[in-house]
C-alpha cells in the first residue's frame, strides 16, 4: 500500500510499504480521510520532535524514521483481530491515536494516561498512521461513530477533542464569556465546543478569512482584528468592564498571551492550548496581582465519547471547517505548502490516502 512517511526534516516521501494486518486485539482500518495537523507541519519543518530521533527507536513502538505520518483520521473497519467481538467490518470509526505503555491504566476513569511516560501518537511515534491507506490499531483506541456523520467530517473529531479537553480544563460554564486568541483549526474547534456548551465566544484573529469562518460557522459571537481594534477594551465593553471569564491561547505568540492576560477578569482562567517552541516572557507580576489561573492542556484523556456525542447529536457541525481535499501525492505541494505559506487561506485540509474520496 502507499503511505506518506517522514524520513527527515523536509523529507516526506510517498512510499510503497507492506499492508498491515490486524493482530490479536487489533482492528484493521481502511483510512477514509486524514487531516493535516500543525504538529505535522512542525515535524516537517523542524523535526524530528515527536518522531523518534534516528538511531533512537521509540521505547514503546521500537520504531525510528521512516515512520508513517497522520494522526487525525477516520475510516472503515476492514478486519478484526482475534478477540475483538464488539465491532463489525464496515463500521465507521475514528481513532484516539495514542501510543501508551502497556502498564499504564487507560481505563474509563483515568485522567492521566495522556501524561504518562513515553506517551506518543500513532502517526508520529510509529504504529502506522492515517496518511497510509490502512492502519492496524489496538481496539482500545478505536471509537465507533454513527454512519450519519460523513467520514470527512469525522476526521475532524480528533482535533475537536483537543478543543473539548481544553474547555474541560478551563472550568467554563454556560453563560460565561470566553476569549480565544487565534482562529486557526484548534481555536475554531475550541470555539465550537464552547458554543455548544452555551458560552459567549469572542475571537481575536489577524486573518480575515478565518474571522469570517468563525462568524459564518456560528462558533463566534464577536471577532476582532487586533491590528485594528483594542481587543482588551472591546472585551471589557462586552462584559460591563469585568473582563473575560476564561481565555484560550491558540497561537504560541507572545503578544497574544499578553493580550489575554489583560483581557481576563481578576481570578480569570487562561488555558494554553498551543505548543510553544520557545520560552514565554510574560508579566508574572500581573499574573500575581490579578490572581490569574494559568493552565496547560495537552491532547485529550477519555474525552472522545463525549466529543463524538456532540457531533452525532448535531450540536456541532464540522463541515464548515473543511477547506480543502487532496490526494496523497499532493501532500507537500498542495497541503503542507499551503498551510505553511498561505495558512490564512485554509482551515483544515484533508487527505484521501487511497484517493477514493476524491
UniProtKB/TrEMBL annotation:
<dbReference type="InterPro" id="IPR036291">
    <property type="entry name" value="NAD(P)-bd_dom_sf"/>
</dbReference>
<keyword id="KW-0862">Zinc</keyword>
<comment type="similarity">
    <text>Belongs to the zinc-containing alcohol dehydrogenase family.</text>
</comment>
<dbReference type="InterPro" id="IPR013149">
    <property type="entry name" value="ADH-like_C"/>
</dbReference>
<dbReference type="InterPro" id="IPR011032">
    <property type="entry name" value="GroES-like_sf"/>
</dbReference>
<dbReference type="InterPro" id="IPR002328">
    <property type="entry name" value="ADH_Zn_CS"/>
</dbReference>
<keyword id="KW-0479">Metal-binding</keyword>
<feature type="domain" description="Enoyl reductase (ER)">
    <location>
        <begin position="8"/>
        <end position="328"/>
    </location>
</feature>
<dbReference type="InterPro" id="IPR020843">
    <property type="entry name" value="ER"/>
</dbReference>
<dbReference type="Pfam" id="PF00107">
    <property type="entry name" value="ADH_zinc_N"/>
</dbReference>
<dbReference type="InterPro" id="IPR013154">
    <property type="entry name" value="ADH-like_N"/>
</dbReference>
<keyword id="KW-0560">Oxidoreductase</keyword>
<protein>
    <submittedName>
        <fullName>2,3-butanediol dehydrogenase</fullName>
    </submittedName>
</protein>
<dbReference type="Pfam" id="PF08240">
    <property type="entry name" value="ADH_N"/>
</dbReference>
